[in-house]
Amino acid sequence: MARRYSRATSWRTGNTLSTNARQLLILTILVYTGILSPFTAEAGLYTASDQIVILTTENADTVLFNSTAAMVVEFYASWCGHCIGFSPVYKSLARDIKEWKPAVDLGAIDCAEEQSRKICTNFGIKGYPTLKFFHAYGTSDSKGQSFRGFPRDVKGLRQNIIEKMENHQEPWPPACPPLEPASLAEIDSFFESNSVQHLALIFEASNSYVGREVTLDLLQYDNIAVRRVLSTEEVLVSRLEVTDFPSCFLYYPGGNHTRLRVQNEARTFYSYALQRLPGVVRTGKPRPLTSDLLGNTTDEQWRVFNRSRVYMADLESTLHFSLRVELASHPILRGDALSALRRYVSVLAKYFPGRPVVKNLLTAVDSWLQAQSQSEISYSDLRDVLDNTAEVPDAALPEGQNWVGCQGSKPHLRRYPCGVWTLFHVLTVQAKSSASTEPLEVLQAMRGYVHSFFGCRECATHFEAMAQDSLSQVDSASTAVLWLWSRHNHVNNRLAGAGSEDPLFPKTQWPTPDMCPACHGVKRGGEHAWKPAEVLSFLLSYFSSERLLPDHLEEESRLLAQQKEQREARRQEQEVRRGAERRAREASFTQPQEEEEDEEEEAQEDPADEEAGEGGGTLEPAPWVKPEAVAEEEGVVEGGRPSRQRGARSRPSVVGMKLREPQEDIVDLDSFVNQHYKAKALRVAAAVSAHVKRRSLQRREDSVLGLGLEAGPDLPGAESVDLGAGQYKRLQKRGLTSQYRGSEEEGVAVVQLYPHDPRGRWMNVLSVGFSGLDISLCVILYFLSSMCLLGMFLFFKMRPRFRRVKVAQP
Ligand code: FAD
Questions:
Q1: Model-level pTM greater than 0.70?
Q2: How many other β-carbons are positioned within 10 Å of the β-carbon of residue 199?
Q3: Do domains 2-166 and 299-547 have the same CATH topology?
Q4: Of 421, 488, 530, 541, best ligand 1 pocket probe by most atoms within 8 Å of the beta carbon
Q5: Regarding the domain with residue range 184-282, which homologous superfamily does it belong to in the CATH classification?
Q6: How many CB atoms lie within 10 A of CB 603?
Q7: pLDDT 10s digits, 638-681
Q8: Which CATH class is domain 299-547?
């Protein structure tokens, strides 16, 4: 049965959702095409979060006809003053009978909407507001039963609905338990046909509604049944020795019974107590374990805690999460978000009742924020202040989440949102205790924070709606405390039974009667009533700084020491990173274009290099990459020290030879050579010299081992070359070989740079060790000497002729 109605409910909800989505889409299109003004788009007195089904042309038939639950529908016009006045009552009614949904649900339709007008006309609606009752499994020709002259208060409306339900014709809504009084015979045979653990009997007068209300309040709970017994059922009354009406008794097989002890003999108290009986659980929710404190399914160790206390560990975890995690998703803070952050940090600095170290840190963050005069700040700068890089003495904000009172039985339940509520309750209470003269200070800070940063956007929308609705009523620090408490209860009411409810921590109207009996009262008609003065004094005590428990907190000295270590580690990382960046800058500045082209060629030839260096070896680290990761990526940090340079990090060894780790000075000298000699050939020659040296060494080794020398196979792309000792010396004199000489592999690597370069090959064959410069100089000298010889030849040939001319002169 339970399954049947839960399916019916979810089907209806799903249907409503999809229809609403479609409606929203159409509405959006209409607004954007200018057919509807934004005003019309926002019209309507209710939203789905009011626990009221919004009827439209698209869903009306499905909701009203052939439904498993009965429906009460308000036909209203959004422009009608009476309707506007009635809407808060209707919303309260929806909250009040939320638990009855599987049996009877509330709906509303705005007849002022062009599209809805036809439905209202079809149902014969003449005036607003009109309330109609629709039976479960109604047919499409049903016009519904009007509530004539219906009361304008929640209690009266609720009783009217009960009467309609009692008179419900067949078929009866499957989720609805029997509402008529139980007889002696039924009670005596009850356990023969029912397998529930508890039978609650509410003894009352015939005109009392308490029994029926409690029956409906419990209809979503398993393992319990509720029946009303009239005071006129004498046998039962005397058997259980009932003297008070109303009163509630728990009845068990064999006639065992016990009276339910409650603070007030009223609906709310009965329902609350019965919902918490052992074994009683909301339909579809897992049964609480025998020891609910051991019931978490997280990997973390469960911390035993006192449910009636607030833990500083939760507040510090909330600060950590909000400031270091939630804010971090805003790399740049500006405009409203920056103002919201300033207000939030300002109230934290003012009212957070933390340990001295945390308070010092918050004050430092606040001062820093106030000192920022620019229109935007970067989160990374703020993060430095949060991590106290400026080394403010005795200031730290613990890192990580350390939930205690906000632990959830599953990793996705409770925790941070629980912490946010708790934090702001504490702050409103602290503001009141500090005799704050700005009643809205904390609440506006919370509103701004939730609006700009709270990750649950739907929650933020709901909270903003509540703030817009009633925040203006807050006119003192006391009303601020009470406002937040009552809004939190609104949310609790809305979320009771929702997926986000932790079965170990059911949503209730808080504080519960057992936590604060004095907070609860009953009105003359038996309705539950909060006692605001008692609630306020309870809140002021419950969230006071004196009652905050310091259990499970990390010691201040350890916290500061840890922070120091982290700071030191961060500083080293930054130094390394800066060094790497500086070297990279220098390298890119001094390396000529030609070299870069060669490197590109090299990279193309060596795909393994590309794979190893994602992003083509970009030196700039991604902002989200941790410094260590960046350093390792660049190949500059190894055990905290610079060790490798870009390009060398994953280059595979050439022909099975391990490359040396390049040194910084090589980069500089390379560029020097390139700039001043423009001599790529020199490097080739130098490389070759190294190779020759290796070969000579190898020859020596081979001769020792008696092996023959095979030149070249280990140098693919580099032709088999020989270098004279004189040429080698000449290179040595130029001081160029020193870098290559030191390492054969480097020589190999340099030769390998041009494996397919025809110029290189030509050079190697032609020069047999001469450099291009050498050849050029030779050519120039040859040319000059030829010219010189030609000049001399011409001079001596012409000389006698000059002489002859001279002689002929007078
Ligand atoms: P919470 O409701 O988080 O309460 C935390 C603690 O505060 C409780 O353990 C209790 O000790 C105490 N407490 C409970 N009620 C009160 C009260 N009335 N006054 C003072 N103290 C109280 N979730 C959604 O699914 N939909 C939403 O729209 C939504 N809106 C939210 C809006 C805000 C601003 C916040 C902070 C959270 C919202 N959440 C919403 C999350 C939801 O309210 C709960 O925080 C979450 O489900 C965890 O619940 P919990 O059992 O830890 O108790």
A1: no
A2: 20
A3: no
A4: 421
A5: Glutaredoxin (3.40.30.10)
A6: 16
A7: 333 333 333 333 333 233 333 333 333 333 334 333 444 343 44
A8: mainly alpha
